[in-house]
Amino acid sequence: MAALQYYDVILKPVLTEKSMAGMAEKKYTFLVNPEANKTQIKEAVEKMFEGAKVAKVNTINAAGKMKRRGMTVGFTAKTKKAIVQLTEDSKDIEIFQGL
What we know:
The chain is of the alpha+beta class. It contains 3 helices and 6 strands, in the order H-E-H-E-H-E-E-E-E.
């Protein structure tokens, strides 16, 4: 396994009703690389979004779902979500401002 760089850790933001409600409390949800740990996620958010200071990171691992096509059985890719809590004095993340 190659070492993950900070720009490989965060894949995309999660835009759901629940994640939008959490933005009032400075909680942001991202899909992240399944190999990334909490320290790497914290470092990636602080480097990618200037002025953001991370207080806490919670992660959720989701196993792939079983899918069938006739007799062939397989699984979808596993995913990992991270809920990032920013400190009170940090700036908001800009990509969510227009939503």
